[in-house]
Automatic annotation (TrEMBL):
Gene3D superfamilies: Leucine-rich Repeat Variant. This is Pumilio homolog 24. Pumilio repeats lie at residues 112-147, 148-183, 184-220. Residues 22-34, 424-439 have a biased composition (Polar residues). Residues 1-77, 424-447 are annotated as: Disordered. GO terms for cellular component: nucleolus.
Amino acid sequence: MAAKKQDAGNTKKRKRLDTKTQESPSHSKTSNLAASKKHKPHSVAKDKKEQKPTLTGRERRLHAKELADARKKKRKRHYTLEQELARLWEKMRCREIAKEDRAKLVTEAVQKMKGKIPEIAGSHISSRVLQTCVKHCSQSERDAVFEELSPHFLNLAYNAYAVHLVKKMLDNASKKQLAGFISTLHGHVAPLLRHMVGSVVVEHAYELANAAQKQELLLELYSTELQLFKDLVSLKESRLLDVMSKLKLQKGSVLRHMTSVIQPILEKGIVDHSILHRVLLEYFSIADKSSVTDIIQQLSSPLIVRMIGTRDGAKIGTLCVKYGNAKERKKIIKGLKGHVDKTAYHQYGCMVLVCILSVVDDTKLITKVIIRELQSVLKALVLDKNGRRPLLQLLHPNSSRYFSPDDLATLSLSIPSLSLKDQSESGSLTETTNVSLGDNESEEDMAVDEVNKDKISVDDSDLAESGKKNPLVRRQELLIKSGLADSLLDVCIESVGELLRSNFGKEILYEVATGGSDGIMRPTLDDKINSLHNAVASLAAMPKPADSQEEHVLENFHSSRTIRKLILESPNFASTLWEKAFKGKSELWAHGHSCKIVSAFLESPDTKVQKLVEKELQPLIDRGILKNPKLKEQANQ
């Protein structure tokens, strides 16, 4: 029975196998056709591979070993050369080494590097050796290095280690070599400026270039057409507007090209370079309102701190403050936090602080961020040429006595597309005019005492060139309510002698002692101002020193002129000084620099002062020791 069941099971399995074998031929044919269609490209590729000579496993291993040995020998040779150069470098960079010995070592190192200089320049180890050689080698050796590097300058400009060598080569390059290098940058200026390392090379070349070479670098950033027609533009057309009018370029195409150049640079935060600042100023001169506001919005951040270190960068910072809205101005001020003292000492950066103090209405924020930092270094600022300017702007705004014509022109800069509406609406409210970016900024007639005073746009307050707050109220809040004036008086009283004898400190002392422009410090601080008058008078009342090394305050060049101005300006000070220092001693001081101080009492516009001194000084006039001021006036007439 079991055998029968097993035979029956086997027959069933055979039947199943037979049915499968009957169905399989048709199915296999269709599947083979599909597979052949589907994998046809692979089969072609396989055929192509089969055409190449096949290597056995042993041959492949031998070939790989040969390549590895070649790489190993190359690394060994390079490592050996680096070791030799490092040994020479350790000797040549010693300060105590003689010039002749150093020259021999440099020559030996240059000979070893010959033919491999481009490769060495990009190495993080041996590039330093090459830099030292370029610094100390002879001119002929330096020219040879320059010649070997010249075909590779563009590639080296992108290398983080080679960039220092390229800069050193440019520093020592002749006029012909520098011109050749700048010509190699043609067509690559914009890509290099978008690169963190390459932008440093372009900026260094721009700083070393003459006016024509600078224009050559700039033209490439203005328009693609200018790359072709750069020879048609002379130095007379230094401004973009002049170039466009001469070559009849379309404003739209220039704007599109400049936007495509500027935007990637700003997005990467590469804003430190003066060539970009020049391009931005030219862009502002032709751009429409929306384009300018977009750029101002991007720059209204801590980025602005990195820009205000150049002349054009400070102008950009000033324009961002003037035309930025309240939110953007707040970002700029907060971005300056921690950098206010350094900015105040900077030749150009201090003008951005001056603009903020003149324009921004949020005096609480300015007091918190800027005034507090200024107070911490107040004495040093008073004695510094640039640091005193923000203080003088609060004491005597826009004074041509303290600000040069260029400084006043910077404060009065305007953006044409944003200021047209302001000028039409507020032109009747003020006699001052703005200096447009398209105008010549170096003329002396632009140096006016009151620049952009109460310049407010009625409808578009976000783009107003100055705040809505009354300038006098703003000054009182920043100077009096913040406590800055009180601190200034303390510094002046404590260091009265040092400030009077200082070339820059005397100006702050003079403005504080007179109470500031418009009498802003009076009557709130009258008591302290009188204390300062007494401090100056007490110093003047001291006898002449026996030691000739230190001049008396009445005989010093700076202090004598400051005291003379104070006598003419402040009758209260003149009376105090006469009573404490000159009464009964006027003949002693009627010689030298102090003679001008004694004469100032007679020239005072206050009749009370003249009557006070007339009895004692008239005999000196009669004896010819002093000149009669009335005769001077008649002679001048």
